[in-house]
Design brief:
heterodimer, A: 461 residues, B: Lyase 2-enoyl-coa Hydratase, Chain  A, domain 2, 10 helices, 0% strand, globular
Chain lengths: 461, 197
């Protein structure tokens, strides 16, 4: 009877073991399927073949997403690692996988999305969208594609943040908290370190696409940065000093030079007349010529004066009279001690989203001590050509006391060394500071006058 | 820049139009090579100088016509740029003060780096480095000019106007580079038009 029972399969009954296992497998498949359907579509664009070219505007003003697998990030990697050497890179990766610092088997758990723009690479988990890490473009030293049998690896060599990283070091000889400036444990030799961000993609085409996209980003970023560098060099050299400036030595003294150049001619700026001139966008690369020549023989900075004139013309075309007066108030408050942060926030509020590009025009008038904050602010609000992300790679072209300047004269015109000029320049510092204040006051007054004149024009038929 | 400042100091290079570069860059070396002190050679040289002064660009037109006639297939502006890196006595300030000698050096350094543009422009990475070098050279040149202007005896309105012109040309050069990088069009003439000083 037992045999009969065993042989007969009663309908509706399923072995409990089968129920558990099948349910598990089916459940996992079902989950995977559900996951796939639940995942959002990527923000992607069609790329022209065969070089996967993308419209630069997308990288500058938008972003593109690609699916990858995130294996991990290796830290404290010797900076002299050759990213072109397949052997070197694979050795590091193999060691890391053996010590479980990098994922061994590739599963859906490593699914991630890389979001690429001209500003940074952002890595988020495919499910949940939690951010893994973000790397500014200027921190990326190299990108490599390595095919290891069926594995298509894209490896990014990046700078290491001094605060450490989520993954432990792959190099046992080096201290885990190694930073760029720290010494290695084995001897007193300064060793530069970097990180390796290890991604995997489905196939060779995907890897090449990612590499070419990054290449285009580099081209955009470093081209803009280089032209920016050229413009800065021209601007810095464009100002003509009236007398020897002891303030030049540490500061990027273009601002000091601008103030000197403005000193003689600030009252002759035809703010009212400039209304008649053709308006220029602050992003225009060619400044307009001054509408009137200065009455005096004083040296006038061409570029600085033109920049100011451009900006005033633009304000008139973009802001209402009330807004211009608000701008003047904010400028005065900043000059009177308000923080650069407050100044930026208030200006941003004043300009709104549609006119935030106007902030770019202020760049030349922000003192050096606040310029870094200003640049960072531009970047955070997504103003194009925010310089903070790309100047760091090359460094600002800082004006230093050149050998020519060292041997130049003091204010009295007599040739002398720096010692002679130091004493005579001390007294000049205070007066130069007063002149700077006077100049900004004049600018603020002129801006307010601009606002008032617009009101009058509106009233007068 | 040298040509501009020299107007007051050296009568050899009287023509300051960019189109006159053909005279200094191409013809002067020819005159010097000949090393011919005969009256005919001197007359020819003087004639070219006088003609160029009264009609800027004449030398260039003559050269272009000769090239056309002889079917010489070279990029004229590219050649001009390369040749401009040579030192020409006529374009140098012959004053001995250190600041003017420094100015000569800085101007020559700028011209030297500009002359490498034709070789570097097709390699993006190297061209970007060249642009950085150009930026540095412009800055050093302007710094030297500013150092001279600090001395009251050299504060000359005309020289300052010429400096402004140089700055404007530099800016136009920068703008042209932006167009070039945006469009990817390689137009040497367009690039050089703004840097014929």
């Amino acid at each position: 009877m037992d045999d009969d029972v065993k042989k007969v399969k009663k309908p509706g009954l399923v072995s409990p073991f089968k129920r558990v296992f099948l349910k598990g497998e089916k459940g996992r498949d079902k989950k995977a399927q559900e996951k796939a359907t639940e995942r959002r579509a990527l923000h992607t664009f069609s790329l022209s073949q065969p070089d996967h070219r993308i419209d630069p505007d997308i990288l500058l003003n938008d972003y593109i997403e690609k699916e990858v697998k995130y294996l991990g990030q290796l830290t404290s990697v010797p900076g002299y690692l050759n990213p072109s050497s397949r052997t070197e890179v694979l050795q590091l990766i193999d060691n890391a996988r053996r010590s479980h610092q990098l994922a061994g088997q590739l599963t859906s758990e490593q699914d991630a999305v890389v979001s690429l723009s001209a500003y940074n690479i952002k890595l988020v988990w495919r499910d949940g969208e939690d951010i893994i890490l973000r790397v500014p473009i200027h921190d990326i030293a190299a990108v490599s594609y390595i095919r290891d049998d069926s594995l298509h690896l894209v490896v990014l060599k990046t700078a290491q943040e001094s605060g450490g990283s989520p993954c432990p070091s792959s190099c046992p000889d080096l201290n885990k908290s190694q930073t760029l400036s720290s010494l290695s444990e084995s001897g007193g030799v300064l060793v530069e370190v970097c990180c390796l961000l290890v991604l995997a993609v489905d196939n060779k085409a995907a890897a090449e696409e990612l590499c070419l996209l990054l290449s285009q980003v580099f081209q955009i970023v470093y081209t803009e940065s280089t032209i920016d560098f050229l413009d800065r060099a021209i601007f810095d050299g464009a100002t003509t000093p009236i007398r020897h400036l002891s303030l030049c030595s540490d500061d990027s003294s273009s601002k000091v030079d601008i103030k000197e150049a403005f000193e003689a001619d600030i009252n002759t700026f035809p703010f009212q007349d400039s209304v008649e001139a053709e308006g220029n966008s602050p992003l225009a690369s060619t400044p307009t010529s001054p509408q009137t020549k200065p009455a005096s023989e004083g040296e006038l900075s061409t570029t600085a004066a033109e920049l100011l004139q451009d900006y005033m013309t633009t304000l008139r075309t973009k802001l209402s009279s009330q807004e211009i007066q608000q701008f003047a108030t904010l400028l005065r408050e900043y000059r009177n001690g308000a923080s650069i942060h407050e100044f930026c926030i208030n200006l941003r509020q004043l300009y709104g989203d549609s006119r935030k590009f106007l902030l770019l025009g202020l760049r030349a008038f922000i003192p050096e001590k606040d310029s870094q904050h200003f640049e960072n602010f531009l970047e955070t609000i997504g103003v194009k050509d925010g310089r903070g992300i790309i100047t760091d790679s090359f460094g600002r072209y800082r004006r230093t006391a050149s050998s020519a300047s060292d041997s130049t004269t003091n204010g009295n015109g007599a040739a002398g060394g720096s010692e002679d000029s130091a004493a005579s320049d001390e007294g000049q510092e205070t007066s130069e500071g007063d002149e700077w204040d006077r100049m900004i006051t004049d600018i603020s007054n002129d801006i307010e006058a601009l606002g008032c004149s617009m009101d009058q024009e509106a009233v007068t038929p | 820049m040298n040509v501009m400042l020299m107007e007051n100091m050296n009568s050899s290079a009287d023509s300051t139009s960019p189109a006159s570069m053909a005279l200094y860059t191409v013809m002067y070396p020819v005159f010097n090579q000949k090393d011919d002190t005969s009256s005919a050679a001197q007359t020819l040289k003087a004639a070219f100088i006088k003609a160029e002064k009264h009609s800027p660009g004449l030398t260039q037109q003559i050269l272009l016509k000769i090239m056309q006639k002889e079917n010489i297939q070279v990029n004229y502006h590219e050649c001009l740029l390369r040749m401009a890196s040579e030192e020409f006595e006529a374009l140098m300030i012959d004053r001995k003060e250190p600041e003017f000698q420094s100015l000569n050096k800085k101007a020559h350094a700028l011209k030297r780096v500009l002359s490498t543009i034709p070789d570097e422009i097709l390699d993006k990475v190297r061209f970007l480095q060249t642009i950085k070098d150009i930026a540095g050279a412009i800055k050093e040149l302007l710094d030297t000019v500013n150092a001279i202007f600090k001395m009251p005896q050299y504060q000359n309105k005309r020289a300052m106007e010429q400096k402004k012109e140089f700055v404007k040309c530099s800016k136009n050069f920068s703008d042209t580079l932006k167009v070039y990088f945006k469009d990817g069009k390689y137009d040497m003439a367009f690039l050089l038009r703004h840097f014929f000083y």
